[in-house]
Amino acid sequence: MKIIKNYVDGKIQGYSDIKLKVFDPSKGEPCAEVALSNSKDFEDVIKSSVKSQKEWSKTTPLKRSRILSKYKNLLENNLDELAKIISIEHGKTLEDAKGSVTRGLEVVEFATGIPHLLKGEFSQNVGTNIDSWSTRQPLGVCVGITPFNFPAMVPMWMYPIAIACGNSFILKPSEKDPSCSIRLAELFTEAGLPDGVFNIIQGDKNVVDMLLESPDIKSISFVGSTPVAKYIYEKSAKNLKRVQSLGGAKNHLVVMPDANVDQAVDGIIGAAYGSAGERCMAVSAAVAVGSVADELVEKIQIKVQKLKVGPWVYKESEMGPVISKEHLEKIEQYIETGIKEGAKILEDGRKIKIQGYEKGYFLGPTLFDNVKENMKIYKDEIFGPVLSVLRVEDYNEAIKLINKHQFGNGTSIYTSNGDLARHFTTNVKIGMVGINVPIPVPMAFHSFGGWKESLFGDHAMHGEEGIRFFTQLKTTTSRWPENILSGPEFKMPTN
Questions:
Q1: Is 280 a catalytic residue?
Q2: Do residues 139 and 218 touch, judged by C-beta distance below 8 A?
Q3: What structural domains and CATH numbers belong to the chain?
Q4: Across residues 410-438, what is the average pLDDT?
């Protein structure tokens, strides 16, 4: 069986003999093993990253940009291979996997503009014969700790920008689907990236804690559940590291009576059940306002019944399995809880069976109606193909509902009223907002990040926020000797 190890100094290596099985969720069977790094592995990764960063930081932004351009081309040329690797270990459909790699690739494309993005500001004669300018310099060794649901896209939110800015980067991918990270690193080496600038360390919580505590690491980037995000944020801050820590979500999609209901339904179906609901931007709460509720629920149910669930090897599959047996059981328990709490279950995904893949972790699309805000299925992030419909009387009740929730990642509204849409974008307490768009994930040149308990730290991912996070500001004030007046000065210069 294939053993997945670390990627250090441009080659696969590792010393640990402690291994964890990696499963194919479609089959419910092991497809590989991942070696969980020990202290020796960790020391090697840190040593490599520190050494390489010193030289890489001296490389011109233009040269970095050219390497990133080659990397972009290699990613495009190997898109099908990367998608297949993701589908095998995650279970998402092949087209969904391709789409996720493409969205990550867009960040690489953004990072190729690093010579422009790192330009500072200059002011002449801020005082008499005194000039001042600002520059942005790399932090040093940066770390990314990433989740299972997007083994290519989420890491690419981080490392292309960090590396473009002159840092070295250590990626700790999810132990549930670690193979993609290795291939991403190999392609970067092929593009001309010096050995050690991009290293991969496999591991579990023990490795995470070593990363959080290491004095050689200057920043931590994380995406995952809110409890872990809080832990990462608190421990990173305690150890004086810069940190961006993205947590959970409960994304609402509001449908107004004046909306195009068919368009809203199509948006809801894709956003709720795509990637088996294992997205931090998945729509898990549809908010039906006033008279639109009955029609909306009826049309959602019709679409749900037509969804094709199956393994990624079937071209007709629109939704694959969830990531693990444990996660499947957790989601099933949420469904049972929802029934006990009094929500009306219209479609129960627990009944699904896929011929030939009976051991796979498949769960069909589940639909609840008449969900109330005090129910656990509404309060918690389920992270699975479970959609809750909440009925409210008017727009004010809808926005109040959203703003009260602990999470503030993403939200959308479907309406034909431009004035109401503008009010929504201004007053909703959410980080990413869509107007007649179901999943408002920003493009690479903008930034991704929520509010409230969906993000801990001051900076969002990629875009200009990413540049600011992976660099530190330096401001220089200069005056040359021939312009310096004789004698000491004892007051603050003012002109």
A1: yes
A2: yes
A3: 3-247+454-476 (3.40.605.10), 251-435 (3.40.309.10)
A4: 98
